[in-house]
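At this stage, I wrote out one protein's amino acid sequence and its C-alpha cells, and that material follows here:
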Amino acid sequence: MKTLLFILLLVPVAAIAQPLSDSETAALIARIAASRAGRTVQADFVESKTLPMWKSPVVEAGTIAFEPPNRFLRKTKNLVVCDGTTLWMYYPEFQQAERYPLGGRGPGQIFAALGQALRFENLDEMFRVTATRLPDGFRIDLLPKSGLLRRVVRSLQIELDSSLRLRSSLLTGKEGDVAETKYSNEQQLPLGSVRFSFDPPASATVVAPFGEK
C-alpha cells in the first residue's frame, strides 16, 4: 500500500515538468527558430522589475518586437531600438538619446544577446541551454557563457506555450535584480512591418556614454 501511494505521489511531479535531453533540446530550439524564420515577431508585455534596494517593484507595459538577423525594439514610455548596427535608448522625459554600437560595451552587447535569445538563433554561442517540457508548453533555461553578459546576467528563463508563442521570461542579474515579463498577443508579421530605425528629435541631446563613435 505504501509503495502504491509513493508511486501515485510521483506521477503528478512527472506530469508537471520533464527535462529534455540534449538532442531533444536542440530539436526544440530548431523548431522554435524555424517558426520565426523570415518573420518579424511582435508582442505586448508587462514587466515587473525589482532590485534589492527597492521597496517595491517597478512595473512597465509596452510592446516588444524583433526581426532577424539582429533588429530589436522595446517600446514603453521610453524607447530601446536597434537597426542591426546601432542601439538607441531614448528618454523623452529628459530629451536624451544614448547611442551604442551593437555588440560593443554596455547595453549594445547585452541587448544583442537578449534579442538573440528571443529569436532562438545560435543560442549556444552565448548560452548554456537546457529545456523542460511543461504540461502546457516549454521552459528554456539560459546561462551566459562568458564576456560582459556573464558579468551582468545570472540567468534567463523563457517560457512558451504549446504553440511556441512567448508566455513569460525571467531575467536574473548578478546584483540581485530581477525582471519578470509576461507576454501576450504575439504576432508574426512580414519583414519590414515594424520600423527599427531611429532619428533623434532635434531637441534631444545625443550622448555616447562609453565614448563609442
